[in-house]
Design goal:
- The protein has one domain.
- It is about 90% helix and about 0% strand.
- The protein contains 4 helices and no strands.
Length: about 180
């Protein structure tokens, strides 16, 4: 190998541990997300409603606009969306990095070294794909639930505003009718 090839090889080896640590963190996060989704599903089944983060946000920020609420929906699913897209890429990186040492082990006739590197490569891609699949499912379901909640909150807000408008206008109409009598 020339200098540039050796340099690239060393850089790629350097990133294996951080990538594997990120994949482990993403896997733990995916399991946590799946657990919270199942908890929320249980609440919906037994209580009829989930945790309602949009309604809670609206109670904390009563002057929030529709755009603020839509931004809140996006914030609720942003990390799951990122993990579902990044995990497969990191899985590919964690698969390709050990392939170099595995090929070197093959050329040296070291079957055990090759097998050890391939175990790391295949394990990493499996963990990455499982993380991506779990967070994608959670993101999809959570997005639907959040949009349903957003629609319900906006409909309720319109009803309250219409009700307040009717009661604000009705006394004036009644008063005007009394003046003409």
């Amino acid at each position: 190998m020339n200098g540039i090839e050796s340099f690239l090889y060393e850089i790629s080896k350097f990133f294996l541990t951080p990538v594997l640590m990120l994949l482990c963190a993403m896997f733990v996060y995916a399991l946590f997300c799946l657990g919270t989704l199942l908890f929320d599903l249980g609440l919906r089944i037994f209580r009829g409603t989930g945790r309602q983060p949009i309604a809670r946000y609206l109670r904390a920020h009563p002057k929030a606009t529709q755009e603020d609420l839509e931004l809140q929906v996006l914030k609720q699913i942003e990390v799951q969306r990122i993990v579902s897209r990044i995990a497969p890429m990191l899985g590919l990186v964690a698969t390709m990095i050990p392939m170099g040492p595995a090929l070197i082990a093959v050329s040296a006739g070291n079957a055990q070294g090759m097998a050890q590197n391939l175990v790391v490569a295949f394990s990493a891609v499996i963990v990455a794909l499982l993380s991506a699949a779990m967070t994608y499912i959670v993101q999809s379901v959570r997005k639907r639930w959040l949009l349903e909640e957003l629609n319900a909150v906006l409909d309720l807000r319109e009803q309250v505003q219409a009700h307040a408008h009717v009661h604000a206008v009705a006394p004036t109409v009644h008063l005007a009718g009394a003046l003409h009598a």
